[in-house]
Amino acid sequence: MSSFIGHGLAALTIGKIFESKTPLDSKFIWQGFLVLCAFAPDIDYVVNSLNLKNNDGLRITHSVGFCLILPILATLILLIIDRKNMFWGGLQAFLACTSHLLLDLLVGGRQPDPILYPFSSRLIGVTYGVLPSAASLNPFNYYFYRNSLIECGILIPIFLIILGGVGKLKLNRYVFVSLGGMFLFFFLLSLRLSR
Ligand SMILES: [Zn+2]
User: How far does residue 62's CA lie from ligand 1's centre (Å)?
Assistant: First the structure.
C-alpha cells in the first residue's frame, strides 16, 4: 500500500484540478471529503468484516465497486444541497477513491486486489512496483521517514506537473526541469528498494 501522505496528496491534486467546480462553496470541507475518499479503501484495517479473511480472500475495499459508495452518496447529497455541482462532485469523489487503487497498485509486490469487483473477482497486481510501500507509522521507525520521502519525491513532481499541464500552476522551464530531475532521482531510488 501507499502511505496516507501519497493518498492525501492525490486527493488534494484532484480537488485543485476541479477547483472551479468545488461543491458546497467550501474548499476546506470539500478537500477534506476528497482526502477521506482517498483514505476510504483502507477502512478494512479497522472494520474486520471488510478485510480479506472475511471475504473469501478478496480485499473488497480495494475495488471499483467499493469506490462507488462514497461518490454515489456524495452525488445524492449534492442533488439536494448543491445540484449544479452534483456531477463534478461525484466525479471528483470517484477519482479520489480510485486514485487509492492506482497508487497501491504502483507499489507492486503485494497481495493483488480484486479491482474490478463486483463485476469480476480477478485479482490484479504488478510484480515490480515503482513506489515505496508505506512503512509502519511510528515516529522512531527510520523506514517510515525514508519511504515517505521517496514517495513524496516521486509524487509531488508528478502532481505539480499535472497541475501545470491543466493550467492551475505556472511552471517555467527551470522549475519544470528541476521537477523532472527530482522525480527521476527519487524514482531511481525507489526502484532500488527491496520489495
Ligand atoms: Zn490501500
Answer: 7
What are the start-end ranges of the H helices in 119-170?
A: 142-165
Ligand 1 center–CA 147 separation, angstroms? 16
pLDDT digits (tens, 9 = 90+) for 100-114: 999 999 998 778 999
Predicted model pTM: 0.91
pLDDT per position as a tens digit, 21-38: 888 878 899 999 999 999
pLDDT tens digits for 161-170?
999 999 999 9
